[in-house]
Each structure stands twice: as structure tokens, then as C-alpha cells.
Amino acid sequence: MRVAVNISYNGRNFSGFQYQHDYRTVQGTLEKQLKRMHKDFVRIHASSRTDAGVHALEQYFHFDTPIDLEPDKWKFILNRAMPEDILINDVTIAADDFHSRFDATGKTYRYKVYTSVKNPFYDGLKTHYPYELDISLMKEAMAPFIGTHDFTTFSSAKTEIKNKVRTIKTFEVIETDDGFDFVITGTGFLYNMVRILAAYVLECGRGIRTPDTLNMIAAKDRTIIPKTAPAEGLYLEKVWYEKL
Amino acid sequence: MRVAVNISYNGRNFSGFQYQHDYRTVQGTLEKQLKRMHKDFVRIHASSRTDAGVHALEQYFHFDTPIDLEPDKWKFILNRAMPEDILINDVTIAADDFHSRFDATGKTYRYKVYTSVKNPFYDGLKTHYPYELDISLMKEAMAPFIGTHDFTTFSSAKTEIKNKVRTIKTFEVIETDDGFDFVITGTGFLYNMVRILAAYVLECGRGIRTPDTLNMIAAKDRTIIPKTAPAEGLYLEKVWYEKL
């Protein structure tokens, strides 16, 4: 049977989601535990392979197993074996053709920035950007992203994916006690796209770049936004499915 | 001249304050930077040598230097060289006979516990104690500690310190969104004392131990409180000085 799992993790001490020999990864941690249960290797498939340092409030993966357990029992057994920085939120017995990556109809990411004096307790959990930010300039930069665009300008050149057209449904900025959260929902995201969008919006808010989003999208030129905001501020917040 | 420095640090990724060869420590990090500035070894002296994993909202250390700089310049130069998990809050030019440890007239510690479902983003920052806690039982256990007592029952046996009499000025419990903070102020604390007090109060709040504080103090027997609450919940919150 196919099991779908909803997890959270603190990405601070992981070298990303994807398995890497000799590095601590989320996939490696989960597969190690599944191997222990199955006495055999079990491959997991995630909705997103988050980068080193990136967090998940909600991430999905699935795997196939001959072990027949109730969802709550799976949740209990997996949670018991997890380190302090991974939490199993929920387990579902999925349809045999469910795929956590291909069936996702959208994703929501949150990017957390604080602008006050450096806080050692945010280390790895929020990006420190100690500048005055103008929220109206940020909104002006953000609004034109809504809709369907070619995101070549706002994605890493390091990719084999040819089709860079993606649809952004919402992109909001929320004022927090000591900075801003940026929350973006779309049908899919290119490599580093949210972090490049964040870097662009922050430069606009700080006043060192004038919002000119539609022309920048039209340019299809990665070199005009040279910055990628740090991984530590990025959270995969929700993965959207029609079924499940 | 003698320089006194007020710092915060996130203890999660440090093997404690005190220098240890081959381990990442707060003292080692600071002395490395001072050596770089002075082209010579400079010893620092702290108010407390916090254990591995213990945090500081405010910790003091002092050192002697021939370098004559304004306090703000010291703060700027030191902060620039610090990693993300140490913050220099303030620098003072102190009297030549000031000693951050011997001149401290008291200390305040905070112990943070959360009782809700495991939160991966609290990893290393709060102690997870997923039980219902009765605040009135905790207050009953805490109140008799106020005053001057021999704390043999509530301190680690691993110490050469003979005099175990200490004075507790205040000991409060504060309800938070998802648990409790315990805040204690005293003239001084024995090794592991706050973590042993926390373990005792938590067991009383959970109802697995009946508050009987005065008799336990009178017993002067470390073996009746076998638990020490984890380091990750402990914060040195303030060091009190008459001068400075």
C-alpha cells in the first residue's frame, strides 16, 4: 500500500531534504528509520527537495510498503524514531497512484525577515536584514507577479528545466513584531525562485532598487537580479492537493 | 585597561562557555577574535561558565587590554567578527579591579518549557514536557525555596564547593502561549541547581511528586531528586552588579 506523510522540519541542521552520502539529510533520516522497520530499503518521494537550511511547516512524501498499519500507528511509530528537528504531523493511506510531487496542484512558501538588531535566537530561523523597509514599495514590486509569467529572470540558471512559465496566485507581505513575512502561493516554483523574489522585493523595500517588475519579467535575464536571499528565512508552508 | 562586555548567545551549537580544545565554545570564539586583534593571547573571565546547550540573554565577561578604544568602537569591532549565534550587547570600560565573576551580586535564570505537541523550531531553545501541569502545585513547590537554604539536595554532587548555602530572592512561574517559563533570582547558584529545581517543580506540576520542599531541603540528600532538566531550556537572563 501507498502511505502519504505530512511532516515539518527545522532545516537548520540538515544539508537539505535530498539524500546525500555522509551528510545529515531529511530523506536520509526518514529512509534510515523505514529501513529499520522493513529490514529492507524503502525509497521515499517528496513533494519538494528543499535546499540546505530551508524549513518545512508542511511537506509531503510518500512510500510503498507491505506493512499494514493504521495511520495513527504509523504516525506514532515514525514520530518515536524522529530526531527533535523533524515532526510527523499526519499519515494517510493514499491511493496506489498518488504521487506527492506530481499530484501537488500548488505550494505556499513563507519567507521570514527581521529588521531589528541581530537576535542570536533567530539564527537559522529568520533572515537578518537590518534596514528600514518601505512596505508600499514592496507591495508595488510584488503585485505584478500575480498571474502567469516566464520566470527566467527570477530563477537560478542552474537547471535543466526549459519551461520557466509559472502561475503565482497570491503574494502577500505581513508585518511582524520585528520585520516582515512574505507569503507566496503558486502552481509551482523554479529552482531558487522564492529566494530570488525575496531578494528583489527586499532591495525594492530598502530603496536601493526601483520596482519595475513587469519589465524585469519581460527581460528574461537572470543577471539583472544577482542576489538570492539566504535559505534560513525560507519555509515550505503548505502543499496543495486535490485528492488526499 | 579593563573592558567589561555584555553578550547574548544561543547555546545550541556551543559545547558550553568554557574553552575546550577541538570544541566550539563561546570563550574559544571570543578569545580567537581578541587574539586576532591583539596579535597576542588575551584571557577572558566570565560571570558564569554556562554548560553545553545553555543560552545567555545577558552574560558578562571582562579582559585586560592595552588597546585604547571607545566602548562603541569595541562593540562594533567585536560584533563584526561574531558568528550569528553570539551578539555583543554592550561594552563598558570598567574599573581596574572589576571582576565579572566575583563582583556579581546575583543572577537571574529563566527555564523555558513547552507542553504542546513537539515543535521542531523549538529544538535546542525550549524543553519539551508534553504533560498537563498544575500551576498551583508548581507554586506550592516553588514558594519555600525563597530565602537562605542549604541546597545540597538540589545541586550536582560533582563539585568541590563545600558551602552549599545560597539565597533565593524570587522564583516565579509565568504562563506562556504553549507552556511555562520559570524565572529565578538568587545571590548565586550551585552546579546544575536551576536544572534540578526545574525538574523537581515539573514533577510536582505533573502530579508524579507531592510538593514537600522544606523537608527535601532539610534532607540534604542529592539522591531524592534524581533528575536534571535538559540544558536547552535554560537561559542566563541577567547578572546583577552594584558597580559597572
Structure notes:
Chains A, B: Keywords: Isomerase, tRNA processing. Chains A, B: Substrate binds at residue 109. Chains A, B: It comes from Jeotgalicoccus saudimassiliensis. Chains A, B: It catalyses: uridine(38/39/40) in tRNA = pseudouridine(38/39/40) in tRNA. 2 copies of one chain form a homodimer. Chain A is of the alpha+beta class. The first copy, chain A, folds into 2 domains: 2-94, 2-Layer Sandwich (Alpha-Beta Plaits), CATH 3.30.70.580; 105-241, Alpha-Beta Plaits (2-Layer Sandwich), CATH 3.30.70.660. Helix content of chain A is 22%, strand content 30%. Chain A has 5 helices and 10 strands. In chain A, strands 1, 2, 3, 4, 5, 6, 7, 8, 9 and 10 form a 10-stranded mixed sheet that branches. In chain A, strand 2 (45-46) and strand 3 form a beta hairpin. Chain A is globular, with a radius of gyration of 19 Å. The mean pLDDT of chain A is 95.
Number of strand elements of chain A: 10
CATH fold-level topology of the largest domain in chain A = Alpha-Beta Plaits
- At the fourth level of CATH, the homologous superfamily of the largest domain in chain A is Pseudouridine synthase I, catalytic domain, C-terminal subdomain
SSE topology string of chain A: EHEEHEEEHEEEHHE
Radius of gyration of chain A: 19 Å
CATH class of the largest domain in chain A: Alpha Beta
Structural class of chain A: alpha+beta
Q: How many separate helices of chain A?
A: 5
Q: What is the terminal separation of chain A in angstroms?
A: 14 Å
Assembly context of the chains:
homodimer
Rounded mean pLDDT score of chain A? 95
Q: Tell me, what's the shape of chain A?
A: globular
The largest chain-to-chain contact, stated as pair and per-chain residue counts, equals: A-B, 19 and 19 residues
The low-pLDDT segments of chain A are: none
As a percent range, the share of helical residues of chain A equals 10-25%
- Strand portion of chain A: 25-35%
Main beta sheet of chain A: strand number and arrangement? 10 strands, mixed
In the CATH hierarchy, what is the architecture of the largest domain in chain A at level 2? 2-Layer Sandwich
Number of structurally distinct domains of chain A: 2
Keywords (chains A, B): Isomerase, tRNA processing
Subunit structure (chains A, B): Homodimer.
Organism (chains A, B): Jeotgalicoccus saudimassiliensis
Function (chains A, B): Formation of pseudouridine at positions 38, 39 and 40 in the anticodon stem and loop of transfer RNAs.
